[in-house]
Amino acid sequence: MMKNVSVENIKTESPAYTKLTDLAAERFGGKALVCSDDFFAEKENLLKPGRGIFIDGKYTDRGKWMDGWESRRKRTAGHDWCIIKLGTSGIIRGLDIDTNFFLGNHPPFASVEACSIIGAPTAKSLQSAKTKWTEILPKSPLQPGSQNFFEIPSEKIWTHLRLNIFPDGGVARLKVYGEVYKNWSLVKPHELVDLAAAVNGAQSVLCNDMFFSHMDNLIMPGRGVNMGDGWETKRNRTPGNRDWVIVKLAHKGEIKKILVDTSHFKGNYPDTCSIEGINLSDLLLPEKGAGAIDLNSSDLKWTEILPAVKLQADFEHFFENQITDRGHFTHIRLNIFPDGGISRLRLFGFKKK
Description:
- The chain is 1% helix and 40% strand.
- It is mainly β and 353 residues long.
- The radius of gyration is 22 Å and the shape is globular.
């Protein structure tokens, strides 16, 4: 059993770990596989974006429509539960069990268990006695209509979670914040891999503007589903302006092929873009103070990887021959001129030591 788990019901500021990847997000590949009961509201809602909404007067043939997972009122012993497959295996740093809009029907308590299983176990096998679950969050109180934050002090790698609610009720969203684990020893030296993919461990770490949509969207799986599912900056009227975002690559590597996708961006795509890279592997050593690095410092020397190229609306742009430097990089900076929106960025390359 895990010990010393802290809970923070924070209304004004979220914990630092919420800046990490949501390993359970539906768009990240997370799936609600099976649950004990979802009579009022489907388990799949748990992993959708946002905090859930409320529509006054909307009902289904089973009762009030709710944007979350909600079980019926339990009249027997026991509690309700839902088993979730993470989008990738990873180390969990914190949880948000969000009861947004669940006020008279939220669970008073919840706990979370985790397991690590190689392959693709079935929902049936995950419920069997052979599956070894480890409690990472002991039975803890939940507040109604709130984000209930829990820090998880563990370095173990997990693939599946079981959310237990006591005894029943509704949870709007479950966010599982952590770090992607990828066994890079299994990746061959000349195996082409997307070094900028969130599912491989890449992170959008800094940008100058994300007024309309978040920089994290750039490196999510699949193509953007709409204009909000990308990185979009506000209109800038400053002559010669550029907006930029910095991505920490999943692994130090050599970039061989680039995809810049402006899907859904039609009247607001950037005119041009360019990409620069830098190798910070030495500076990232713990003894050299990695936390003190200012990625926007003018002292850092960035190398041009892709010179400024014209972009089109709602289009997948592939660049290979245009790449001017095939050095080894740990971070890249995507520059857009003068502003606008990019749906996805893919950087295919080889891992390097």
